[in-house]
Amino acid sequence: MLSRLTRPQAVAVCALPVVALLATAAFAPLPFSVAQPGMTANVLGANRGTQVISVSGAPVRSTSGQLRMVTIEATGPDARVSLTDVVDNWFRTDRAVMPRDAVYPSGDTVKEIEQHNAAQMQQSQDAATQAALKYLGLSAGKVKVSLKLADVGGPSAGLLFTLGIIDKLDGDGSGGDLTGGRTIAGTGTIDADGTVGAVGGVALKTQAARRDGATVFLVPKAECADAKADLPKGLRLVPVTTLKGAVNSLTILEKGKGSVPSC
């Protein structure tokens, strides 16, 4: 049949399957999620009318400034992300196209994913409480800490929870605030021994932080390069690997004496 067609006609006929394939691919669901800067919350204050950190069994300080945990918002685990969506968002600095498995546990249902994220948040809160009380030399049997943050899952707020507990109980250790009156934001997991772990989406989180007034951003040291990508103007990055290092950096910033690490 093709031998009876002119060259342009033959090319057109051969191109039809390719066009059809591309059209199908453009609208077929792909294993990606599209993420953007999410909400932030001041762990020293209230979120949706409820105090994020509540302490009993020890005196609590009045604090100034803010310690803001940050999030990213991603398309849901059951959302259809097409090739068109990927192309539209690939070159935007306020969006990130990420493998779905990097955002959500592979193979789980929506309900199971929600339960997984809630469990990670609870583990993060428990570790944050243990790390803070251990740092301050306080007994978990005497001091009780309650952490509440609605509609947020995962472990990446661990460092900020820990710093918030320390600021409420001890500040900088000499009567001042860890924040120095600033709006400090940051991200990172925390272990009970005070080790800070890496998280995802830091380039988007810096945008959320600056949008909500932060001038300093605490970032796991291993993710400095990611955090520097499209870093918003007016936001200073401070790399951290341990809780002690994070507290020391904030204290130096507050007092204005000494050298603060930078990415």
Automatic annotation (TrEMBL):
Extent of the signal sequence: 1-28
Pfam families given in the database record: Lon_C (PF05362)
Source organism superkingdom: Bacteria
Annotated ranges, domain Lon proteolytic: 153-236
Keyword DNA-binding: no
Gene3D superfamilies according to UniProt: 3.30.230.10
Keywords on record: Signal
Protein's UniProt name: Lon proteolytic domain-containing protein
Phylogenetic classification of the source organism: Bacteria, Bacillati, Actinomycetota, Actinomycetes, Kitasatosporales
